[in-house]
Amino acid sequence: MQSSQQTVETMKFSIERSELLKALGHVQNVVERRNTIPILSNVLISADDKGLTLVATDLDIEISETAPANVTGPGQVTAPAHTLYDIARKLPDGAEVAFAIGGDGRLDVDAGRSHFTLPLLPPADFPAMTADDFTHSFTMSAEQLIRLIDRTKFAISTEETRYYLNGIYMHASGDVLRCVATDGHRLALADTDLPKGASGLPGVIIPRKTVAELRRLLDGGHDIVDISVSDAKIRFAIGSAVLTSKLIDGTFPSYDRVIPKDNPRRLKLDNNAFARAVDRVATISAEKSRSVKLTLSEDTLSLAVNNPETGMAHEDLMVDYNDGPLEIGFNAKYLLDVTGQITGEDALVELADAASPALVRDPKDERALFVLMPLRV
Amino acid sequence: MAELKGYCRDCEALLAQAGPCPHCGSQRQIRHAEIDSLSIAHVDCDAFFCSVEKRDNPKLADHPVIVGGGKRGVVAAACYNARVYGVRSAMPMFKALKLCPHAVVIRGNHGKYSAEGRRIKAMMSDLTPLVQPLSIDEAFLDLTGTQRLHSAPPAVMLMRLQKRVLDEIGVTVSVGLSCNKFLAKTASDLDKPNGFAMIGQAEALDFLADKPVQFIFGVGPSFARSLNKSGLYTIADIRRMGDKAMATKFGEGGLRLARLSRAEDNRPVKVDSERKSCSAETTFNTDISDPDQLLDKLWYVAQKTADHAKALGIAGTVVTLKLKSKDFKSITRRRTLSSPTQLADVIFKTCEPLLRAEATGGAYRLIGAGISGLTAPAGDAMDWLDPAAAKRAQAERASDKARDKFGKGAVMKGRELKLRSRGNKTASPTDKDAPVKPKPELRSRGMKGLPLDPAQRRSAGMKDHKAADNPHTPGQD
Fold first, then answer.
1. For an interface test with A, which of B338, B342, B392 has the most A Cβ atoms less than 10 Å from its Cβ?
2. A192 forms bridges with which residues in the sheet?
3. What is the mean pLDDT of the segment spanning A141-156?
4. Strands B104-106 and B65-68
5. What are phi and psi of B422, to 5 degrees?
6. Which of B342, B382, B397, B476 is most worth mutating to test chain A (most A CB atoms within 10 A of its CB)?
7. With 50 as the cut, is the pLDDT of residue B475 above it?
8. CA nearest B380 in A: which residue?
C-alpha cells in the first residue's frame, strides 16, 4: 500500500485532448453505466516512459489503449471513466490536458482555464484480467473481420436460456474461417479464407457485447487485426487498442443440419423492391408478431398481412419464379434483417415447402448465406 | 330532504311529497335532487355465488354460506350471514372457517355462475348497449340518452332491472347511480344488499372529502401506506395536493387520484375492456415441494392458459410463472419470447427452467402460468434447435381439435393423466411410481369418440406414460 501511495502522489502527465478523447472513447464504452462494485466504474490510468495506458473492464471484457503523452511523473491511478470521457468530450479541440495528483490525494485535471478534481480509487483494487496462454494466433484484415461480423451479428440470440447462442460462433472449417450466429428462428453464416495460423482453430463463441465493442474498435480505420485465442478467452489487437474477452462457455449446436442442401423451388427477386414491400405490408402487422404471408405463383410474389385487430395489407411483386404455387409465412422483421444483408441488387431464395427452412443467398457475396425458419400459420 | 323528487321502489310512482308512497304506502323510496340527470350506473350482484346457491337450495337461506375452494383455497364469495362474522371474499378459507366455523362451505360451480351472470348481462343489455362487465357479477352501464327510448329515466329503468333480476334469476343486486364510473361504483357500495344509492355532482365533493384514501377503488394497502407516508390520509388531502404534485410524486396513478379526489372521472363505459394478459392458477390441497409434482401442476395451468388464449384468439410474447410459497409469499418469474405463442407446450417449456430454479426444496401452495404482451396469434415460430417443438405444436393443435369435439378429456398428456389418477387423495412422492390407469370413463370416451389407429393417436399428442414422465429436453446439444 505504501508503495502504491508513493506512485499515486508522483503521477503527472499531459496529453493532447484529441488523443485523450480517442483513447477514452475506445475503453469507456465497456464500463457499465451502473455498477455495484465502485471500481468497475473507473478506468485504470498508467503513465510511464512509454506514454499513457488506459484500461477499462466489466469483468467479462477488458479493453486497453495506449496513447502518446508527455509523462513527467510515472504512476498509476483509477478514476471515473464516464466522467473523464465527458470532460474530454467537452474540452475545446486542441487543448492540452494536464493530469496530476493533488495534495488531497485526488486527481486534478487542468485544461486552459478549466479545472476538475476527481476522486480516485486505489489501482491495486482494479480487477486485471488474467493473461491466458493463447494457443492460436493469426492476423486478418479488418475489412474481412468487419464483413464476418456484419453478415452474422443480427442473428445472435437474446434468449438468456440459450446462452450458447448469445454470440457469434467462429471456427475453422476446412480452408475457411467461418462465423455463424443463430437464434433458432434464423441463421446467418459467413466465410472467409482461413488466415495463416488459424488452421485447427477450435470453435469459439464470442459474446454479443464483445462483438459490439470489437465492431466499434474496427471503425478506427486500421487495416490489420491480430487475433489470439485460448480455451476461455479471445484477444483482438487493433492499432493501439487491445480487447480481451471471455468466451461463452458452451457448445454451439451443429448448425449444418438446418442449412437446406437442395431446396427445389428457386426464386430470384429484386432485393430492394422486396424489402420495401415487406416493410410496407408490415405496417399493418401487430408490432409483436410481425407475420407476413408470402404466396408464390408463376412470376408473382404476393405479400399479405392479415390481422383481425390492426387491419390487412396486400402487395404483389414481379419476381423470377417458375415453380408450383406455394404459401409460406415469415416474421417480417427477420425478412427485413436478411434483406439488409444482401449487397447486390438481387436476392436468391430457395424454398421447399411451408414447413421447411428457406435459404437466402446474395449473388454478390457467395460466401455468406442466411436461413429463415417459416412461421407455421 | 324529504321534499326531494323521487320514486317508489315498489310501484315506481313519482314522489313529489314527503312521506310514504301515496299509491302503495311503501317506505322504500329513492330520492335525490339530481335523480333524473344521473345516468352512469354500477350494478353489483350481492354475494352473487352464495345467492345463487341459496336460491337453488332454500334450506341454506338462514345459514352462513361460503363459496370457495377446498380447505386450502380462498373465499370466492361469502353471504351476508357469513360476513357478520368477518368473513370477506379473497380471505384464505382456513381463516374464514376460524371466524365462522359453522359456515356451510360450497365448492362452487363456476359454470352455473357464469351462465347466470350472462343472463343478468343480457338483461342489462336491454337497458343500454353500453355495458362494461367488470367481472362475472358486476358491470358499469351508461344510460345516457336512453330516457326517450324507454320513456323512463335511468333511475326507474335500474329499479326495474333490480326487480327483473330478482324475479327471473332469484338474486338481489345493488345499484349505484351517479354521473361517472368512480362515483357510481362508490355509490353501489353504500347501500348493500338490494340497495339503490345515488351520488350527485353537487354533493360529491363534500361526500368524498373526509373519506380515507383507501376509499378510492384501486388504492390498496401498499399504495395507501405510501400516500399516508406523504401525509395524505383523506381524499381532501389529495385534493389539496393538486394534479402536478400528485403526478410528480406518484406518477400516472397519482394524477388519476388527484382527479378522482375532485370526483372527476371521464373514463367512458367501454363495451370491451382491453385484455392485458391471460393466465390460470391452481392452489394445491397440500403444499408441494417435489419438482416433478410441481411440473405436473405446471402442465395443468399451462394448458388451461393455452385453452383460454386459443378460445380468445390471442397470443402473448411474455410468459410468466407464478408461485406462492407455503407462507404466502408470491414470486413471479417471466421470460420474453422472440415470437408470440398460445401453445401450452411453449408456455410449459418456458416456465420449466424457471420452476426448476425455484423448486429447490421449499414448499409451494399455488402455481400459476400466464401470457401477456398480447397480440393476434402469428403462427407458431419454427425453431430448428428444437425440431420436436414443431411436432409437439402440431400435436397440440390436433389434440385441440379432438378436445373441442369430444371434450377436454378426449386427449391428454401423461402428466394430466397422472394428476387425474392422483385425484383427491393426498399427493405423495411415491405416487409417481404408481402405475397410472386412465379412468374407465375417459378410456371409453376416447375409444368411442376417437377410433384412432396408433399412428393417429401419436399425432394427436397422446403420449405413453413413460414419455411423459421423462420429458426429454431437446435443443441442448
1. B338
2. A177
3. 96
4. parallel
5. -70, -35
6. B382
7. no
8. A376
End-to-end CA distance of chain A: give it in Å, rounded: 67
CB count, 10 Å around CB of B203?
Answer: 15
B376, A286: Cβ pair inside 8 Å?
A: yes
Q: What's the average model confidence in pLDDT over A165-176? A: 94
Q: Which chain B residue shows the shortest CA-CA distance from A187?
A: B384
For residues B211 and B199, give the distance between their C-alpha atoms in angstroms, rounded to a whole number.
14
The model's confidence at residue B395, banded by pLDDT at 50, 70 and 90, is: confident
A159 touches chain B (CB under 8 A): yes
Nearest CA of chain A to the CA of B312: how many Å? 12
Interface check for A290 against chain B (CB to CB < 8 A): the answer is: yes
Q: Does the ipTM exceed 0.85?
A: no
- List the catalytic residues of B: 138
pLDDT at B425 over 60: no
Residue B444 has pLDDT above 70, yes or no: no
Pairwise CA distance, residues B423 & B426, whole Å? 8
- Determine, for residues A184 and B353 on separate chains, whether the beta-carbon distance falls below 8 Å: no
Chain Cα centroid distance, residue A314:
36
A243: contact with B, CB 8 A cutoff = no
Average pLDDT value for chain B:
82
Q: Which cell is A173 given?
A: 472449417
State the nearest Cα–Cα gap between A366 and chain B, in angstroms.
Answer: 23
Residue A216, Cβ density class (10 Å: 0-12 exposed, 13-18 middle, ≥19 buried): middle
Between chains, do A288 and B373 touch, taking CB under 8 Å as contact? Answer: yes
Q: Which cell is B87 given?
A: 368473513
Given a cut of 90, whether residue B322 has pLDDT beyond it is yes
Supply angle C-alpha B97, B98, B103, rounded to 5. Answer: 35
Query: In Å, what is the CA distance from B53 to each residue of A90, B56, B104, B106?
Result: 75, 5, 11, 8
Give the 3-state secondary structure percentages of chain B, helix then strand then coil, rounded to 5: 45, 20, 35
pLDDT per residue over B248-276, tens digit each? 888 888 888 999 999 999 888 887 766 78
Q: Is the pLDDT of residue B104 over 60?
A: yes
> What is the pTM (predicted TM-score) of this model?
0.64
Phi–psi pair at B315, nearest 5 degrees = -140, 160
**Contact yes or no for B198/B187 (Cβ under 8 A):** yes
For chain A, say whether B272 makes contact (Cβ under 8 Å). Answer: no
H or E, element range at B302 = helix B291-312
Chain B, window 308-367: residues with a beta carbon less than 8 angstroms from a chain A beta carbon:
313, 315, 317, 335, 338-340, 353
pLDDT at B21 over 60: yes
The SS3 assignment for A160 reads helix
